[in-house]
Amino acid sequence: MSKPTKALPYFLGPEKEQKDEYKRVLTETIEAITASVKDEGAYQGASVEALQQTLSQFSLLPSHGIGWEALLEEVKQTILPHFLRTWSPNYMAHLHSPALLESIASELIIATFNQSMDSWDQSPIATEVEVAVVQQLCNLYGYGKESDGVFTSGGSQSNLSAITMARDWYCSSKLNHDVKKEGLPASYHKLRLYTSEVSHFSMEKSAHLLGLGYDAVRKVPVDDLCRMDVQELRGMIESDKQAGLLPFCVVATIGTTDYGSIDRVEAIRTVCDEEGMFLHADAAYGSGLQLSPTYRTRLGDLSLCDSITVDFHKMFLLPISCGAILVKNKEHFSVFTLHADYLNREEDEEEGYTNLVGKSLQTTRRADALKVWMAFQCRGKDGYEKIVDTCIENATFLAKALLAHPSFTLAIEPELSSVVFRHIGTSELNKRIRKELLHHHQVVIGQTVYKHQTYLKFTLLNPTITKEHLSELIALIDTLANELQQ
Fold first, then answer.
1. Coil/strand/helix, residue 242
2. Quick check: 420 and 456 in contact, CB under 8 A?
3. Beta-sheet pairing, 307-311 with 323-327
4. CA-CA distance, 251 to 160, in Å (whole number)?
5. What is residue 416's DSSP assignment?
6. In the chain, which residues have pLDDT < 70?
7. Which of 60, 187, 266, 274 is least surrounded by CB atoms within 10 angstroms?
8. CA dihedral 476, 482, 484, 485 (to 10 degrees)
9. Measured between alpha carbons, how far is 217 from 249 in angstroms, rounded to an integer?
10. Could you tell me whether strands 91-92 and 444-450 are parallel, antiparallel, or unpaired per DSSP bridges?
11. What are phi and psi of 80, to 5 degrees?
């Protein structure tokens, strides 16, 4: 009969045993993680069926806990070998970055102290960190003293927040209607939002959640570089006005998910000013380019936008989840403010305590701003400039190499770090290439559709990827294509 294992303390605390066990658990976990990394592969290749079969053997909540030692052994065998390795030079499928080492350390701090960002008395220093980080982010993107921001779970929540602000601002200023108190106006079904036909699907999701419906989202055609066609935008707005509809917002995409294409905010701002519309920049992808003096002009002047979505778990290389919504006019956050006596008492705020719940869709939130603070302090301007420039230059190199290769065709030349291309064979062949790489070569790349054909995609967010490695991957894909066609 096996000797029962000693129960773990519940938490970290001031006692020596609590501290020792905390260190032991974390040390053993780190050792298990590092031991599981045996090569540069992005994924060891297990099938969907194999993983499902493995996990079907476990009861979610066993009658008796198995203890830490047995649990760690099970994690070593069952879980760690099958995790995707986002730091691998063979991983480039999505806008899903590797995490910088110092930001992983910040995650440990965040998880250990488990602050909640809704009220100051739940997160004193964490609140002040977020306030300070937001102020400097507003400065970074060219906003003035009346600006503000709050951290979010990512681009979808930031976009939902911005569109909520835009809807309420329009209804208040143009229709003399207070949505916050009275609900949607009678003419709500006439409200229209404009965004490019290759923008993020969170536009439709937001419209649905806000009671406007998918039909409220007008998808504007794009030009040859997959950027919103501003002349088409003008025409659609005018046509909708003639039909009695109410154009209230344009969302410019600053780095589309597939192509990294960047809408031209200066031209769109002119349209919004002429029409009395709110302009939001979904810069979830492209916002990282602001840290590169060499390439930041590609973004345009984001300070022209009424709000900006920034994601730090993309080009900034921070752990999921970590995003922010920045607004030029802090008054827009009033749409989320509601006082609760137990949480954000007015007398506390009058005495200088900051309760961030009044700016957020969420109540409980993690102290994600610490990740930004630590990474920025650690890397500095020069470090981040090198990260961003390397990724952009890798994409430029890859695009040129594909254009020069007789077996490949390129969708568009990249503005950011996404490269969309295809082998000249059939769409079915390109689909098979991606799955062959995933399950047999430990290489994970993306797939999308461009002009009704299947294309492959490299999303280059890892600055350790070399041009030599990219050349090797092109050769591997060409070899696989030839083998699969035989």
1. helix
2. yes
3. antiparallel
4. 11
5. S
6. 1-5, 341-345
7. 60
8. 160
9. 10
10. parallel
11. -55, -40
DSSP-derived 3-state class of residue 448: strand
Q: Would 105-374 and 379-484 be classified into the same CATH topology?
A: no
Give the burial class of 179: count Cβ atoms within 10 A of its Cβ; 0-12 exposed, 13-18 middle, 19 or more buried: buried
Tokens for 430? 């390109």
Q: Where are the domains of the chain?
A: 16-81, 105-374, 379-484
The first and second tokens of residue 449, run together, are 């559709």
Distance CA 258, CA 233 (A): 21
Residue 131 CB coordination number (10 Å): 17
Sole residue written with tokens 């345009």:
300
The Cα 260–Cα 185 span in angstroms is: 37
d(CA 137, CA 144): 11
Supply the CATH classification number for the domain 379-484.
3.90.1150.10
Cβ 322 vs Cβ 313: under 8 Å: yes
User: Under a CB-based contact definition with an 8 Å cutoff, are residues 252 and 279 in contact?
Assistant: yes
CATH architecture of 105-374: 3-Layer(aba) Sandwich (3.40)
Q: What is the pLDDT of residue 7?
A: 83
> Does residue 236 contact residue 228 with C-beta atoms inside 8 Å?
no
